[in-house]
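testing teh design pipeline on a random one, pls ignore if ur not involved
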């Protein structure tokens, strides 16, 4: 029995080792049930959260797919409607909102019976002409003959450093760096649009086509606006090409050409008229009567005959403001208001640059300010005012290398004696105050520009030695006029103009300098002033407007286009009504 009992006990003991007792639950049965419910509730909530996340993820994907599908469907539907609706429907909608639109000038002139007569030559201004790649570094592979300037400007965003390298010219020669060839786009497409949707010459070309013009009697004299005028001939023979094309159009049509330059193209064509008559090798060898034989009229649009101070502001302080003509640059409002005859002059000829400080971070922006001392900068800015004459001395002092390069190709003075042989040099040819108009008494010159827009005339500067990139001078944006009617705003004095070129620069030569027989116009070429008073578009549907006087938007001004078409069809300045003036340009001396 004991043994049996032991076996029985052992078996019980063994059974307990195999079958583990269930864990003992502490607490009352209600608490156990409560905990069990909480556990089940948590599990259920977790499952619900997982399902919600999955549904949310699927909903997001579905939403994106639906959105893409909706956009694509809407786009295709709109394209279908655009192709299905009559071509006049957009104009109908516009007229329903803004009222009846006038006929474009080309349609109006066609109804009057005008037809193409004189060949037309367009001379674009700075920046608006396209430039394309012909040879470049490996970073520009695959872009042969693609536009680097104009169009979409896609390469600016994709490879900005490479783009800058290819757009830059050699600092010494002013021509292409080794291994790079960027050339102007040829044909009417060179400057019809600056970028997608931003017209320059396109509206004028389209209206001329209405009366019979086509590419055989329209020529875009595109040039590389980065180069000096004479270097466009040295590198690309652009002036020779213009001469040949004009001669060809005159020979084939039997009529003289009408030349239409815009902005800087006005000065470029002024240079051309001297170049074409000058003997080779400096000139084109056309002889003194070439212009008289080949040119009926020159219709200058927004011409900066007397210069622009945006160039001064940009060179002096690398600040971008709207372009305007510089009469005075001042340090301090009180001195800016003093008459120029009473301004204290600063003599830079005996100045010595000293107390140099290093500027290694921004020499590509302004590579010569680091050679000036603080004392020299303070002397410049010590409440001195700089007129157009003295600002050139100032730039020669602060930027001698840059001014030396510019002085080799351009001159900025007023001729005392135009018989002086020195004025036969090409650097004087683009300055109307240092050259004569050609001997062409039957030719006409028009100055056409917008008025009614505030245009920069002069700047108030402040000395700021701690400014970024060590450019120690900045436009004093805190300088304001004494009342609401004052012309001083944010350190800039404004006058009447086209928001880029003041009336004085655009109109003075045709109003006074070339009016009648003068030393600048010995053959008495007839000159006319045609001003266009600015009227902004009434609604956004009008785009940039048909009555704009803005420097570029004026290219779509119906009144200007009508004047050009009439002259191209054979009218004279007197047929247009002579001068049309809204400003005081004839009262200035």
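output:
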């Amino acid at each position: 029995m004991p043994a049996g009992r032991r076996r029985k006990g052992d078996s019980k003991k063994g059974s307990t080792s195999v079958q583990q007792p269930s864990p003992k639950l502490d607490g009352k049965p209600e608490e156990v049930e409560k905990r069990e419910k909480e556990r089940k509730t948590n599990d259920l909530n977790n499952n619900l959260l997982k399902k919600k996340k999955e549904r949310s993820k699927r909903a997001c994907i579905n939403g994106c797919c639906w959105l893409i599908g909706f956009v694509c469907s809407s786009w295709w539907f709109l394209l279908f409607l655009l192709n299905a609706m009559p071509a006049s429907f957009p104009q109908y909608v516009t007229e329903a909102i803004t009222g009846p639109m006038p006929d474009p000038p080309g349609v109006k002139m066609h109804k009057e019976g005008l037809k193409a007569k004189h060949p037309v030559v367009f001379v674009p201004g700075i920046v608006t002409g396209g430039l394309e790649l012909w040879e470049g570094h490996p970073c520009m592979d695959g872009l042969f003959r693609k536009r680097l300037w104009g169009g979409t400007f896609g390469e600016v965003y994709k490879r900005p450093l490479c783009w800058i390298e290819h757009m830059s010219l050699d600092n010494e020669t002013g021509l292409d760096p080794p291994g790079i060839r960027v050339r102007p786009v040829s044909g009417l497409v060179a400057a019809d649009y600056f970028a997608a949707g931003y017209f320059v010459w396109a509206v004028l070309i389209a209206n001329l086509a209405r009366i019979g013009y086509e590419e055989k009697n329209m020529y875009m004299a595109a040039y590389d606006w980065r180069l000096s005028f004479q270097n466009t001939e040295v590198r690309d023979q652009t002036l020779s090409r213009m001469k040949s094309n004009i001669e060809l159009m005159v020979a084939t049509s039997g009529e003289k050409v009408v030349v239409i330059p815009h902005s800087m193209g006005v000065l470029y064509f002024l240079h051309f008229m001297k170049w074409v008559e000058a003997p080779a090798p400096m000139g084109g060898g056309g002889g003194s009567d070439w212009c008289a034989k080949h040119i009926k009229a020159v219709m200058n649009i927004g011409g900066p005959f007397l210069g622009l101070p945006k160039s001064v502001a940009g060179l002096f302080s690398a600040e971008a403001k709207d372009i305007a003509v510089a009469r005075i640059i001042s340090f301090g409002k009180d001195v800016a208001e003093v008459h120029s005859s009473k301004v204290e002059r600063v003599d830079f000829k005996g100045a010595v640059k000293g107390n140099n400080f290093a500027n290694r971070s921004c020499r590509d922006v302004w590579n010569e300010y680091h050679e000036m001392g603080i004392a020299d900068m303070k002397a410049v800015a010590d409440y001195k005012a700089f007129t157009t004459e003295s600002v050139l001395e100032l730039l020669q002092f602060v930027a001698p290398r840059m001014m030396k390069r510019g002085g080799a190709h351009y001159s900025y003075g007023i001729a005392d004696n135009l018989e002086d042989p020195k004025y036969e040099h090409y650097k004087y040819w683009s300055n109307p105050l240092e050259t004569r108009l050609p001997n062409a008494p039957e030719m006409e010159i028009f100055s056409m520009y917008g008025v009614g827009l505030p245009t920069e005339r002069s700047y108030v500067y402040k000395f700021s030695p701690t400014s970024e990139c060590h450019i120690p001078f900045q436009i004093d944006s805190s300088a304001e006029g004494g009342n609401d009617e004052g012309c001083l705003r944010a350190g800039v004095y404004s006058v009447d103009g086209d928001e880029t070129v003041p009336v004085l620069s655009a109109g003075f030569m045709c109003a006074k300098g070339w009016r009648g027989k003068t030393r600048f116009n010995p053959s008495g070429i007839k000159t006319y002033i045609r001003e266009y008073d600015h009227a902004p578009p009434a609604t956004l549907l009008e785009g940039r407007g048909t009555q704009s006087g803005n420097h570029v938007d004026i290219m779509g001004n119906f009144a200007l286009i009508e004047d050009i078409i009439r002259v191209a069809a054979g009218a004279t300045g007197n047929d247009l009504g002579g001068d049309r003036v809204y400003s005081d340009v004839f009262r200035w001396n």
